[in-house]
Amino acid sequence: MVVRRGKKRALIAVGHKILIAAYFILKDQVAYKDLGVEFLENKRKTNQIQHHIKRLRELGIDTEKLQVA
Fold first, then answer.
1. Of residues 64 and 58, which shows the higher confidence score?
2. Domains of the chain: which residue ranges?
3. Are 56 and 63 in contact (CB under 8 A)?
4. Helix, strand, coil tally for the chain in percent (to 5)
5. Which of 19, 38, 56, 65 is at 20 to 30 A from 30, Cα to Cα?
């Protein structure tokens, strides 16, 4: 994030994420649960697949026959 936005903006963004997490933990009175690296990798993979399927549809390719491994 530092590369894209700069050091100051990255620090503010990370602080904002922490503040939001703390707010919901306190509001809902639940224990913090780290989703882990696998969650983020799977989410990224799913988003990439959906993006490429959308792009293929825009190019006129029938995506109903495609299978995802």
1. 58
2. 1-33, 34-69
3. yes
4. 70, 0, 30
5. 38
